[in-house]
Amino acid sequence: MPLTDKYATKIPLTFKKDGTFRILMMSDLHHKPNTGKATVRAMRCLIDETKPDFVLLAGDNTTGKATNEEFLPLLADIASPMEEANIPWAHVFGNHDKSTDVSKEFQQAEYEKCPHCVSKAGPAELPGVGNYFLPVLDERGECVFGVWCLDSHQDFLTPDTPAFMEGESVWEILLPDRLHGRSDDDFIRFEQIMWYWNTSVELEKLCGHKIPSLMALHIPLFEFYAITRNAGRTGMRGEFGEKICCSEINSGLFAACLQRGDVKAIFAGHDHNNTFDGIYCGIRMGFDGSIGAAAYGTSDHDPRGGKHRLRGGRIFDISASNPADIKTEMVYVDERIYED
Predict the structure, then answer these.
(1) What is the rounded CA–CA span in Å between residue 192 and residue 43?
(2) Tell me: the pLDDT tens digits for 234-249?
(3) How many CB atoms neighbour CB 324 within 10 A?
């Protein structure tokens, strides 16, 4: 049955008449003042090449802005490829999106003013900004696929929501000998996971079945390590170009998705030189590289190319007849597009 207005988007996301739906995910634009238009050119290039039905910006969309006024032209720039092409799009926030004097609440309101942006602020009581579900509808208006978007926050030194009881220190988590590396990144909070679980259950009751879904967030989960450490077993594809910068705290989000059984893919940004994906416990996980001209890239001494060798995004192809079988691959931008 059709979903209630609670889940409606201002522009419906719908499968084409041939029963297909394509998502283009791009992250780590790192668009900041006075950095030129190369990132926007690259975005247009990928959109022209892949012809998506929906575009998802997966965090670190803008950075380096000191005031609300500085943010507005940055948003206008990164929104322009989708707005000019009349393509619905959405975003999640990354660890660089928040600035000292430019709140995510202000940014979210401005994103939602863009005519084709279908992002939502999400429940106000949840940690972070932009925790929401987007339904993808078939020709009858019924939900057969979904996109979960989550705010994965910043780092432990600049948290949206304190991770500790009053009086406790961040260094009780960030010990000298870390579990996985030197990352200070924050983690998805339990309230967000509980919201996902309860919303998933509600969607199943409304639709009569679980909704196969893609989950997008900026900072990867601890379980992404299962792919790189078991490359053959997990069918790992793509490049593992830097350590996985996940949180020191395992949030339990993966376990919740595994138990519910509706999320079929979890993808992140954050690690610019990782483009790999693979399947662990039936859930495909991985990265989408980086699209931003100002973002760090591969070494300039990389014999396979320069700094921009792995610039690109990731496409997801979904079929209305079998939406749980998500096809995905990386798409890359010619390095020359970044030459001013």
Answers:
(1) 30
(2) 999 999 999 999 999 9
(3) 17
Which residues contact residue 81 at a Cβ distance below 8 angstroms, ignoring those fewer than 6 apart? 40, 43, 44, 47, 55
- pLDDT of res. 35: 86
Contact 71, 114 (CB under 8 A): no
Q: How many CB atoms lie within 10 A of CB 277?
A: 24
Using an 8 Å Cβ cutoff, are 160 and 19 in contact?
Answer: no
Q: At residue 113, does pLDDT exceed 60?
A: yes
Q: Which helix (H) or strand (E) holds 90?
A: strand 89-92
Contact 274, 287 (CB under 8 A): yes
Total Cβ atoms within 10 A of residue 142: 14
Alpha helix positions (H), the chain: 38-50, 68-84, 104-113, 190-207, 225-229, 231-234, 253-260
SS percent in the chain: helix, strand, coil, step 5: 25, 25, 50
Residue 238 Ramachandran class (φ > 0 left, ψ -120 to 50 alpha, else beta): left
Report, as an integer, the average pLDDT of 83-110.
96
147-200: pLDDT as tens digits? 999 999 999 888 888 776 555 678 788 888 888 777 899 999 999 999 999 999
**Burial of 156 from C-beta contacts in 10 A (0-12 / 13-18 / 19+):** buried
Helices (H), 85-136: 104-113
pTM for the model: 0.96
CA 81/CA 24 separation, integer angstroms: 12
- Cα gap 164→183, rounded to integer Å: 18
In sequence order, the β-bridge partners of residue 136 are: 13, 145
Report pLDDT for 176: 86
CA–CA dist 162, 173 (Å, integer): 13
HSE-CB for 239 with a 13 A CA cutoff: 20
The type of residue at 26 is M
Contacts of residue 233, defined as CB under 8 A and 6 or more positions apart, other chains included, come to none
Q: Which CATH architecture has domain 21-162+170-338?
A: 4-Layer Sandwich (3.60)
Q: Tell me the two tokens of residue 130.
A: 């932009």
Angstrom distance (rounded) from CA 237 to CA 44:
26
The yes-or-no verdict on residue 136 having pLDDT over 80 is: yes
